[in-house]
Amino acid sequence: MPAEWAPQSAIMLTWPHPGTDWSDILADVEPVFMEIAQTVLRFQHVLLSCEHVFRLQELERELNNFAQENDLPGRVVAVPAPANDTWARDHGPIAINRGEGYELLDFRFNAWGGKFPWEKDNALNSHLSNFGSFGATPLIPVDFVLEGGSIESDGNGTLLTTSECLLTPSRNPSMDRAGIEHLLSETLGAERILWLNHGYLAGDDTDSHIDTLARFCAPDHICYVACPDVSDEHYSALAAMEEELQQFHQADGQAYRLTPLPWPDAIHDENGERLPATYANFLVLNGAVLVPVYGVPQDEEALATLSNLFPEREVIPVNCRELITQGGSLHCVTMQIPAGVVGA
User: Which ranges of the sequence are coiled-coil (predicted)?
Assistant: First the structure.
């Protein structure tokens, strides 16, 4: 499984529509998706799907106009496809490189253990493939529930994940840790799996996806969320996660370089429930890193930190305050497609 910083052809977006949980705040959240799409177009293709055909046609026109105005023609791929929700990171295909080119693996998606409707999302990759969106790249079904947000790859055979997510019985009840490790080895080429047993974010429906907590930013470097406030409900769990990360070693036995990410001020919804704001949910593009920000004082520090972690890429903030009202952020609504697949 390639690292996220490997060359990409496109970013996949599943657009919100009135049949999703976004229905009451579509006017607020669609501009966030549009900002993501237009920013991505500066660097690569956008693979956009939407259940509502007329809305898809409007989006395609708007994005093509943007692309033309910025001398980026031909980068918009728009496909009509049914969807329950918008979390492309988790229902999108997961790429692997077998040395002779890429394959796209279509793992099963069941909405994080059956928490929400999922049947349309589970079929979305097939719709895209049948439409020809992936060109000649094969889409291979895998009879195993796995979300893209639950795994991080260093591109060299090491995966980072959480036991809270992958070992939850509502996903793959017949498989234990050893069985899951074997399957990930067979399907993703994982030679090593680093399991985090601690760490969570309040308001997160995913059972502690790794992409909200800790991310590879180089094969020897992991950044992670750290909570310095001893009075915060997250302090103990994230301190324990930090200790686990400090015990991890690379394949050659060397310790990882570790960089803590800023801890944003607590953000609550209208009912007083805490929302899962995290700077770990950044997205790496061909020439940039999109960083979620939330309108809190720690945003600037987060941008500076990510700029130091990715010095050769443009670091671009995206206000994701509206996204976290539904439990996810920037990385959660996007999925990278490797080079040579879309628009080839």
Answer: none
